[in-house]
Design goal:
Length: 104
Amino acid sequence: MVTSESRTPANVPNLYDGLAGIVVVSILAGAFLYAQQPIFGLLLTVAFGSAYATGRIDDLEHGVVVAGLWGFVIASVWSIGTFLSFGVATILAVIGYGYWRDAW
């Protein structure tokens, strides 16, 4: 188990930050240049970036929850493909996150 005393502070960059940056640029380049789906590429980039940042700042469980909820949103957009599905899935993901954090 990792304690807060043994972790690298979140404001100190490490090797994984550079790797995450390379992944983000690769996702954006693939979405814009190859797949020609810039909105979906931006959605994937925000999902990856927020899950990585959450896992870096907080514990692994928090990062997995955020990644799972983003997976739900991305799956709904990919399968249904409308902005309404994006809105509904995002609202449900925020409600699920609030229940997980005991905010409501």
